[in-house]
Recover the amino acids of this structure.
């Protein structure tokens, strides 16, 4: 998943284990990377449960900062729970010795983290290590919500401090234009699965125009607000594109435009709405 604002340039990112397949896109080279400063999360240590040299996702979003799925580099090796545990503990020991603060441990990386078959075990290990080394740090997972209906995935997600779940559009037809999901995606199933959180999750929605999609169109924004009313997430994070996108010609929204679009929900006081002109994420 993809929401980070980097304050520094290419050399800094490369030194932190982030590489570029295409100079415009970003692939994390390591399983545990950072910490990176995030305006929203503070000092955030990233965990990438996808391959170190490629992207794997069951979405292929037209705005994905990792580029198209097809542009991956044929690396399909997922890190094991043992590798994640070892790499994370080594990093936490090092950072603690240096006195480096860690405010957040954030699962994101080059694709959908819940696709890693050991995701539930990895979450348990991460919470244990967090409690041991940085008990004040929050654990966040950025996910496209496609696998919340799987009991083991949901049970893992509900243990973390911030399950951040993506819905960009309200119908399967519209989602096909912006997220291009793998066959079998069904927004109705995702909504039903998200109800299990009973509002204790963060909903994230990317707003943009392009590819015949417009987040401000009534057939998008009005049903999206109905989804918010139905699910009552504890926070709705609305953001727009901030980096190069694999599909050309996409248009971003200004924070003012986004705020105006979601104002009815703000007025109803349903949820905390966070509006980001630039997206923050690992
Ligand atoms: S959900 Fe979309 S933005 Fe996130 S990694 Fe997958 S393709 Fe990229």
């Amino acid at each position: 998943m993809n929401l980070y604002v980097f304050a520094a340039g290419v050399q800094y990112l490369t030194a932190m284990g982030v590489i570029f397949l295409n100079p415009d896109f970003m692939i994390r080279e390591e399983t545990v990377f950072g910490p990176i400063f995030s305006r929203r999360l503070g000092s955030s240590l990233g965990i990438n449960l996808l391959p170190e040299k490629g992207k794997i996702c069951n979405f292929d979003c037209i705005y994905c900062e990792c580029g198209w799925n097809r542009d991956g580099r044929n690396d399909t090796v997922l890190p094991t729970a043992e590798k994640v545990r070892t790499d994370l503990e080594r990093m936490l020991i090092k950072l603690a010795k240096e006195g480096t603060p860690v405010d957040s441990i954030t699962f994101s990386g080059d694709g959908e983290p819940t696709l890693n078959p050991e995701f539930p075990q990895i979450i348990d290990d991460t919470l244990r290590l967090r409690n041991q080394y940085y008990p004040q740090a929050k654990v966040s997972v950025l996910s496209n919500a496609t696998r919340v209906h799987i009991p083991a995935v949901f049970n893992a997600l509900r243990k973390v401090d911030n399950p951040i779940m993506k819905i960009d559009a309200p119908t399967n037809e519209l989602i096909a234009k912006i997220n291009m999901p793998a066959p079998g995606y069904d927004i109705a199933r995702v909504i039903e699965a998200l109800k299990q959180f009973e509002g204790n999750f963060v909903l994230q929605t990317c707003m943009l125009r392009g590819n015949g999609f417009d987040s401000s169109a009534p057939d998008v924004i009005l049903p999206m607000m109905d989804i918010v009313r139905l699910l009552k997430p504890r926070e709705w994070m609305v953001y727009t594109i901030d980096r190069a996108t694999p599909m050309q010609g996409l248009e971003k929204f200004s924070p003012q435009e986004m705020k105006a679009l979601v104002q009815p929900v703000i007025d109803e006081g349903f949820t905390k709405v966070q509006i980001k002109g630039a997206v923050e994420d690992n």
